[in-house]
């Protein structure tokens, strides 16, 4: 009897250990480091590290660059999450309706961005966006539009960078929606058809409610990934121009690894961690109980 | 886009663990008896192996070369400092020298210089060795020289009635406006938006400095104000492209921007990419009515602080500072020597480009060795200037913010 009750723990222990080592421990270490003035000379010699209490958090609250990064991240979330959810849901619904060979080829086509290396992606998009030699500006010049500064204009750069991330982020979510769509029992649609519901009505009143959990899942994971937005601005603009695409993650990276302020960066990463935790928790609480699925 | 926080946290944690391990062991750079590990910046690792082959032959000391990309050096340094195991010898860009020294990564060399006459300060151009001391200690020796000169397209300048390259910044601004008037999408000059030394060079050439008598950074001077006028004026005239993704080599070759201040590496790119332009472009000293001072931007070599092979490292260092090695490095890799005797070499001087470079090197200064030029002071300076020219931020308010941000930054 005793052994039986231990067995499940034995089975989950590898996962728990990994989670502790690579999830909980780093957060704990960062929490400890965030209370110190750890920098590169502290790394060289432990004796140079001093306990500074909550000084780093106070400094963060007074740092206009941090607030700017928070503002940018907020904008990315507000623009990016609905964009990814709506675009991938729309594409998934259309792909699901047409079952031909071409549609199946399209499925892999939409998934390509998700499996392509970010550096290759950024190189290509960098060329597309280039002001002098880029394809976009060339096409626009054909219809007489002046050069557009895709990555150099502080406002436009935010959207240019976000567009790449949206393009890259949809692939995986389309697959999730397609899988969820295939899980909807055929009987429901037949019943709706017998009741005289049209295509549009069936989608709105039967399919979408049954996709509730998938939409919820995609929204939560997409929100988290936008809150940690890093790769695209890092490779396309390095947070520029003039900090316009500096997300919180980029800000932390620069503070930590370019300015070597590990204590300060750790404090910032804990703030970001707290924000993500709170937002995810609120999303989980707000979720209405599922329809039968 | 995913898991960055975890990644950052994990990296910090790994550093912490590594540092604590390093604290309780006597781990150090390289093995006691084994190959010397050398970090060489950029992609010239293979060339460096070729350079040190005679050294290995002569002394039997193997040299293992690690090429570190320029933009990965910060992370490399952090990891090496944290783990306590670095290379034996390493190349350090001058703008990173203070950061390395402050981290305690470099071995002070003063006690060893007596036994190695090849490394003495008087082997190098005036002031360079002194200027690259940190806190009064010699932590590195000059290795390659680099400077900034004015590149110009003589053919385009002539077509537009400009007979000689501009000799002062005011002339340059006028000529740039003339050249920009060639038509839509044409400019006169190019300002790289990432080039933090450029405004400093301009300040020097108006006869000022960004460091006050006490060694503190001071941008609140009339000369810097003149430099700001020039910088913003070039934008206001429409003489420079405003997009940050402008390609300086392509811009010069295509003639869109027929003038710019850049380093010898640009000459190489132009010669490689557009040999047909030969004879249609030239270099000259940076403009300046009072001074023609430019940037001294080379790299130094330093010995890792806890290497167990100090003597072997110093031997290699001395070999690399020999006239032969310096000249052969120029031949293999195109980087200018730092040793005076090599710079004055007749064969080297017969190259008209090198003649200009060495004239300019004779009148050039290193950037002030503040704690973090690239990450802090320099980027604050660029952010301020670019905010004024690109987003139309208020000049006085932006500069006041820059003064406040850089107050108290010192080379001491």
Overview of this structure, please?
- The complex is a heterodimer of chains A (293) and B (412).
- With 293 residues, chain A is an all-alpha fold.
- Chain A has one domain (62-286): MetI-like fold.
- In chain A, 75% of the residues lie in helices and 0% in strands.
- Chain A has 14 helices and no strands.
- Chain A has helices at residues 2-33, 40-44, 55-61, 64-97, 101-115, 118-129, 135-142, 154-182, 186-194, 199-210, 212-227, 231-236, 248-258, 262-286.
- Chain A starts with a helix and ends in a 7-residue tail after the last helix.
- In chain B, helix 1 runs parallel beside helix 3, helix 2 (45-59) runs antiparallel to helix 14 (323-333) and helix 9 crosses helix 10.
- Chain B has two domains: 4-147 and 297-365, D-Maltodextrin-Binding Protein, domain 2; 149-295 and 370-406, D-Maltodextrin-Binding Protein, domain 2.
- Chain B contains 19 helices and eleven strands.
- In chain B, 47% of the residues lie in helices and 11% in strands.
- In chain B, strand 1 (36-41), helix 2 (45-59) and strand 2 (63-68) form a beta-alpha-beta unit.
- In chain B, the strands form three sheets. A six-stranded mixed β-sheet of chain B has the order 2-1-3-9-4-10. A three-stranded antiparallel β-sheet of chain B has the order 6-5-7, covered by helices on one side.
- The longest helix of chain B is centred in the N-terminal third of the chain and has 20 residues, at 4-23.
- Chain B has helices spanning 4-23, 45-59, 73-83, 94-102, 110-113, 128-131, 154-159, 169-180, 197-205, 222-236, 248-254, 264-273, 310-320, 323-333, 340-343, 346-349, 352-362, 373-391, 395-406, and strands spanning 36-41, 63-68, 89-93, 141-145, 149-152, 259-262, 282-284, 294-295, 299-303, 336-337, 364-365.
- Classes of the chains: A mainly alpha (293), B alpha/beta (412).
- Chains A and B meet through helix 1, helix 2, helix 8, helix 11 and helix 13 of A and helix 1, helix 3 and helix 18 of B.
């Amino acid at each position: 009897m005793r052994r039986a009750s231990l067995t499940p723990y034995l089975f989950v222990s590898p996962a728990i250990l990994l989670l502790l080592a690579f999830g909980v421990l780093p957060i704990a270490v960062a929490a400890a480091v965030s209370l110190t003035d750890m920098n590169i000379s502290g790394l060289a010699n432990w004796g140079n590290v001093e306990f500074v209490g909550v000084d780093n958090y106070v400094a963060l609250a007074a740092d206009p660059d941090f607030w700017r990064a928070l503002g940018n991240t907020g904008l990315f979330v507000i623009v990016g999450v609905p964009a990814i959810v709506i675009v991938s849901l729309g594409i998934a619904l259309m792909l699901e309706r047409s079952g031909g060979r071409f549609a199946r080829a399209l499925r892999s086509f939409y998934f390509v961005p998700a499996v392509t290396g970010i550096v290759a992606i950024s190189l290509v998009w960098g060329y597309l966006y280039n002001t002098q030699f880029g394809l976009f500006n060339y096409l626009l010049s054909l219809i007489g539009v002046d050069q557009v500064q895709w990555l150099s204009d502080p406002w436009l750069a935010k959207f240019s960078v976000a567009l790449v991330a949206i393009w890259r982020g949809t692939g995986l979510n389309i697959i999730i929606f397609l899988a969820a769509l295939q899980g909807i029992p055929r009987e429901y649609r037949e019943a709706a058809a017998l009741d005289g519901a049209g295509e549009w009505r069936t989608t709105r009143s039967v399919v979408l409610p049954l996709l509730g959990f998938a939409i919820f899942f995609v929204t939560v994971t997409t929100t988290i990934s936008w809150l940690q937005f890093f790769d695209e601005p890092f490779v396309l603009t390095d947070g520029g121009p003039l900090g316009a695409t500096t997300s919180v993650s980029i800000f932390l990276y620069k503070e930590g690894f370019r300015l070597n302020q590990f204590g300060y960066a750790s404090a910032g990463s804990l703030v970001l961690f707290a924000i993500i935790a709170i937002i995810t928790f609120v999303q989980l609480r707000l979720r209405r109980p599922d329809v039968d699925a | 886009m995913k898991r960055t926080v975890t990644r950052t946290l994990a990296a910090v944690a790994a550093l912490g663990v590594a540092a604590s391990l390093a604290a309780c062991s006597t781990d150090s750079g390289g093995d006691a008896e084994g190959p010397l590990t050398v970090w060489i910046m950029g992609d010239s690792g293979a060339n460096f192996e070729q350079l040190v082959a005679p050294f290995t032959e002569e002394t039997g000391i193997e040299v293992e070369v690690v090429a570190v990309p320029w933009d990965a050096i910060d992370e490399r340094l952090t990891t090496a400092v944290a783990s306590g195991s670095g290379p034996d010898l390493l190349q350090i860009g001058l703008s990173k020298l203070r950061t390395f020294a402050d981290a305690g990564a470099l071995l002070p060399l003063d006690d060893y210089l007596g036994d190695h006459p090849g490394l003495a300060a008087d082997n190098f151009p005036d002031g360079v060795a002194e200027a690259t001391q940190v806190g009064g200690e010699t932590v590195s020796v000059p290795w390659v020289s680099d400077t900034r000169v004015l590149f110009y397209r003589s053919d385009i300048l002539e077509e537009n009635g400009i007979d000689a390259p501009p000799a002062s910044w005011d002339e340059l601004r006028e000529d740039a406006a003339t050249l920009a008037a060639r038509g839509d999408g044409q400019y006169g000059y190019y300002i790289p938006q990432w080039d933090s030394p450029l405004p400093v060079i301009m300040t020097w050439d108006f006869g000022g400095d960004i460091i006050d008598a006490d060694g503190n950074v001071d941008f609140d001077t009339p000369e810097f104000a003149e430099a700001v006028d020039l910088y913003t004026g070039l934008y206001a005239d429409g003489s420079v492209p405003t997009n940050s993704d402008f390609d300086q080599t392509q811009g010069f070759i295509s003639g869109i921007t027929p003038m710019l201040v850049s380093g010898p590496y640009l000459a190489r790119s132009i010669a490689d990419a557009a040999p047909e332009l030969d004879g249609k472009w030239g270099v000259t000293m940076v403009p300046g009515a009072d001074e023609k001072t430019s940037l001294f931007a080379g790299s130094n070599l330093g010995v890792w602080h806890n290497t167990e092979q100090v003597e072997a490292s110093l031997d290699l260092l001395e070999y690399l500072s020999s006239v032969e090695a310096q000249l052969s490095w120029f031949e293999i890799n195109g980087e200018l020597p730092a040793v005076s005797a090599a710079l004055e070499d007749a064969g080297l001087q017969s190259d008209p480009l090198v003649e200009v470079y060495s004239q300019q090197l004779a009148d050039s200064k290193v950037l002030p060795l503040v704690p973090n030029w690239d990450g802090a002071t320099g980027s604050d300076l660029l952010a301020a200037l670019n905010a004024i020219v690109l987003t139309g931020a208020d000049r006085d308010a932006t500069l006041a913010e820059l003064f406040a941000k850089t107050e108290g930054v010192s080379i001491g």
